[in-house]
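Let's practice the habit of predicting before peeking. Look at the sequence and jot down your guess about where helices and strands might fall. Then scroll down.
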Amino acid sequence: MRNNRVKRVLDVSVAALLSTYTIYEKILKPELTVTFFASFLFLAFIAAYAVIDNYCHKLHTFESLFCLVIAAVMVIGDSFKNYGSFYMICGNPFSDAVLDSLFEGFGKNLSILQGKIGNAIMMVASLARFGGYFCILSLFLKALHAVCEKKWGESVLSPLADKLCRGKIYWKVFFVLAIAWLPFLIINAPGFVSRDASWQINQFMGMTGYTTHHPVFSTWCIGVLVWLGQTLVSYKFGLFLFVLVQYVTLDFILTYCIFTVSQWKVSRLYVLFITLTCAIIPCFGTMVTSVIKDTMYCALFALYILQLLSFLREHRAGDVPMKRLIWIAVLSLLVSLGRNNGIYCVIPTDVLLICVLLFGKNKKQRWQKTGLILLSFVLFFGFNVFQSRVLHVTKGSVAEALSLPFQQTARFVTEYPGDVLPEEREIIDKVLDYDHLSDNYNPLCSDNVKATYRGDNSALLAYFKVWFKQFFRHPLCYLSATIHQTYPAFYPDHSNTRSYAPFSASDNKDVPLSGFPIGQVLIMGYAMGLSLIPVVSWWVNPVMYIWAFILMLFGSWGRKERLEWLIWLPCIIHLLTVIAGPAIINHPRYLYPVSWSVLWIGAYVLERKREQVTNETH
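Done guessing? Here is the structure:
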């Protein structure tokens, strides 16, 4: 008994020490007068671990695995944020050469020794930081368990949740969202026009030709309303008309989603939470008032995930109504047409859905239901044929799809110019502007590099042969290029939550800079203020919802729920397309389809947890 107590004290002390070190390195180290505060923080962590351990059991295996993965993500993110490489983890591979120049007067051997010692210290420090992150994440999950088990704060929030969920919840949620977004609508009027949307408007107005770089369907949706408003009143009114229609449509969609979740076996507090999330978090109000194709795509993708969740619930109950498959078929088509990467999320998911329909236990109307899903495929590919043969839409550049390999080549040329053979340089130059690759290389965004693509698709085969050879020559360089561009999608300590600034269309001289400048400053201050408040900053950060998605994904693996791949698959594929894309930093909108969907996935997981507890008690 005494040995167990001593072991427990040692475990808590080590965990508190690692947590304190991580916080000290992360936040407090720049200040020189915080030694006392760091000591106080150490004692606070000891108290926190001791108290919380009394309230909850050990973490599940999948939760521990999640903490390990996210701790590794944080260490890697710290390294790339501060040094742009794995320097904090494995030291600087060029440290010997750098220190040779610094310690030239003291001899080469001394410089090499100092370089290796410095690398070793950096690796040990990163290992300690990894342990600290793991302990902090474990502490957070244990605290979350304690809050849920003891129902802390329920007495304060329950009356508000009861008022929301009692009576006509649909219209209550609808007007809550409408009122919460109204300041954004007024201040940003007639609407933020993104550069992509301005190009789409130009295409619809006939100023430029259609290209597949932007989905024709979304171009029509934007262009028709802007053209109608311009015909009736003015170009400003056309922009506002589109924003107003989008405002109402998104309100109906999210209200429907929240209303559907409220009918499940979930706590009313959770319904209140997702309602407040959609109402308070600035990204919703900003996206609703932006003329951009991503807003409706995010809403349709989230609605698509909700229908798949409803399908899982009904399939488990033994009867999936035909209306559910109609919903899924229509949304499959709209998601596929809404963005170019939508089809990659839909096809594998719907193929899996067809397999469930054909080979699952529920055989009722399986051929009719399968036919509905196949019909959405036929309509999508039929529309593609129509736009190419009838509308003569020009194919967009393949550079967008090749952003990641182009970025990897640019980093290779920047870091290892001496390792590029003359014949390899010639082949690369046929695809990209080799002489300016290093100058154009931005590790966080590949736009400058892909802009140098020469457009000769016939040279790509030879290019990829060189690409493979250089990969095996310096694989860490390719990995660094990938992580440096994509780590903001999983690393919350990065300013990737800003709102969109207003743009004006380059070819439309009468397009105004949108809204009221003073009001926009207030909105930006509101968004930045929320991001600076402890805990609340996690709530408004889209990366935290990606973390929640990963946690629930691990939990699903632990439950061995194979059918749940219907909801994991489209979200994973979407994240993979984001990783393969040109940029994530300053474009949090790419994460919104998954982060919004997490709200409904969380409700489904909580319902399954409640059912599991109920079955165990009986």
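How did you do? The chain has 28 helices and two strands.
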